[in-house]
Amino acid sequence: MAARHLEPDTAELRARWGNFAFTKAWEAKARTAIAKYPDGRQRSAVMALLDFAQRQIGEETNTQGWVPIPVMEYIAKYLDMPVIRVVEVATFYTMYNLVPVGRFHVQVCGTTPCMLRGSDAIMQACKNRGMRKGHTSDDGLWTLTEVECMGNCSSAPMVQINDDNYEDLTPERLDAVLDALAAGKAPKPGTQEPGRHTVEPLGGPTTLKAMVKANFDYRKEW
Ligand code: FES
After folding, report:
1. Residue to mutate (ligand 1; options 145, 146, 153, 161; most atoms within 8 A of CB)
2. Considering the domain boundaries, does residue 201 fall inside one?
3. N- or C-end of the chain: fewer Cβ atoms within 10 A?
4. C-alpha angle with apex 130: 129 to 136, nearest 5 degrees?
């Protein structure tokens, strides 16, 4: 499980983030998110606003972004809700980074299906490149985190890197993805298995074969 803690609330942190405010572009998105909810229910937009703040900070710092305490306070004020409620949400969902991260946040799934399909080797491949769990590499490029099931068990093992998932990994395939990212390229997200499109069975369907070419009504066979 990811070890999570809040970045200490220091004078330096306040000096850096105490004046945080949404830019015009993110403010417009925040207004749109809030408008999706009935009057008086603007607090329901807290998850969206935390995400927007993280993305704005990501843009400003050329990282995946994170949400410092003063930014949580800003969102609490923005939505007229207690700060602790914002902190509760931010600390519950691992999509919010509570400490600074690197340009690429490599989240390796270590839950059972991924573990059975080789996530230990995937984690080792990350470590072989100098990544350490819970740390950002000295060049600021990589932050390594182990996470729980990301819902891609059918194409395990997988990692999430920033907004994309990379699946059906081997250490070599992961290296290729990481090399491409480091070189400023955009590797294809999703399965890395040649010939596989999403999570269909390799080698073709094993059930409902009559549905492959056209709709087929199986009910008359019941
Ligand atoms: S166990 Fe890794 S995605 Fe489900």
Report:
1. 153
2. no
3. C
4. 120
Whole-angstrom distance, CA of residue 166 vs CA of residue 174: 8
For the whole prediction, is pTM greater than 0.70? yes
209 found inside a domain: no
* Partners of residue 166 on adjacent β-strands: 159, 190
Out of 42, 59, 92, a domain closes at 92
Closest approach atom of ligand 1 to CA 150 = 3
Grade residue 2 by pLDDT with cuts at 50, 70 and 90. Answer: low
Is 6 a domain residue? Answer: no
* Number of domains into which the chain is organized: 2
Q: Indicate if ligand 1 lies below 6 Å from the C-beta of 69.
A: no
The whole domain housing 138 covers 104-191
Q: Is there a domain that residue 215 lies in?
A: no
